[in-house]
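User: histidine kinase, Formimonas warabiya:
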Amino acid sequence: MFRKLRWQLTFFNAGIIALLFVLLIMGTYLLSQNQMERMTRQMAQSLARDIVTGKITDLPPAWEEDKHPGQEPEIMVPPFTHEGNPPGEGRDNFPGSAVDLPPRPGLYPLAFFVEISAQGEIIKTSSFFPLKQTDLKTLVQDMLKMPDQEGRLSINQTGYYYLKTNLPERKGMLFVFQDLSPERNARMSVMTALSLAGITCLLLSLAGSLFMANRAIIPIQKSWEQQKGFLADASHELRNPLTVMQTNLEAVLSDPKEMVGNQEKWLHNIGEEISYMAKMVDSLLFLARVDSQQQFLSKDYFSLHDMVNMVVESFQTIAAAQEKSLDYEGRDKVSCYGDEFRMKQVISILVDNAIKYSPAGGRIRVGLEQIGHVAVISVADNGYGMEPEHLDKIFQRFYQIDKSRSKGGAGLGLAIAKLIVEKHRGIIRVSSVPVQGTIFRIHLPLSNPVTVVN
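Assistant: Predicted structure for histidine kinase:
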């Protein structure tokens, strides 16, 4: 069950992270693509504006920089000169010859242009013209048919951005073409980098999700195991008194003619087990409320001194009947804000345990003093004590040092006491020495939460 839950949590978290990364990568790619398209458009518009205003008269070849992959280096001779002379009359008649090539504007790599007259005749092309002369007229005819002033087209399997603009003085049109190979290469580089980053992040998110799922499963698994143990222990503790009651009831029913007075022993045993079961059920209900995060405290200001003194007085008769002394050594009349009933339950649990686990002639001392903003309640006895290995376990549910239940407990009292003290932002500690006795101390903040130091 937990293995399946672990993988479900892992894939769920990894799926969410992967979705976020996909959205991030798509957004980054679209943003970069839009930025590159905008730069290409601005470059073409700027080139057209410079040509129209006369700032640029030609775009000569840039030698190796203008080569396409696999293309041999050459200087393309424009099909028409600046004077409109037909090709073949000498390269020295136009600024495209090897002698007088002007420096190419660095802002417009892999760009060329074509000027046509109002009648559709070719007037001029840039010195750099990456097409064959036979393709020029076809290109011009296709451009004249295109309704859009700008867009994208493919020439000899190479993508170009085109821009059409009017030539007001010469009454013609200017076609500007910008090679999209750099944009395509940059876009592919961005996509490759984003894909590698996405795959890496996906693997890292999967590993991180598995790690977090393992950590999240630990308290769930621990709680599940505790719940199973709790139910098993509760079933065991409830089954024992039922068995005793059934046995005693069978003894009573075995002789129906016997008088009630003669059955007092069996009836007394049944009554004790009923009392034990009632106490057990109350404890289980209390723990169930705590586990379900229900509010079980009713807080108000009360006298901690009077409450502790009242508990001690109520147990003094029980202690005296067992030849044990119980004394209250409260020094300060301390008042506290909390649930008086639940704190009374805590002191009762500690005093009751001290009486149970003290021999005849033993002495139990209950103390109360105020140290700063902390009330310290102590319950000490000179009884049997506990071995060190039990000290960190006695606050666990159903934990019993005496497994035989000879002392009449179910192992829930100290667990309940610890929960109540912690709900009051307090701390409960225990120290014990075998044969010498045990001391329980409760540190209870009186106002704001404070840190209690050992």
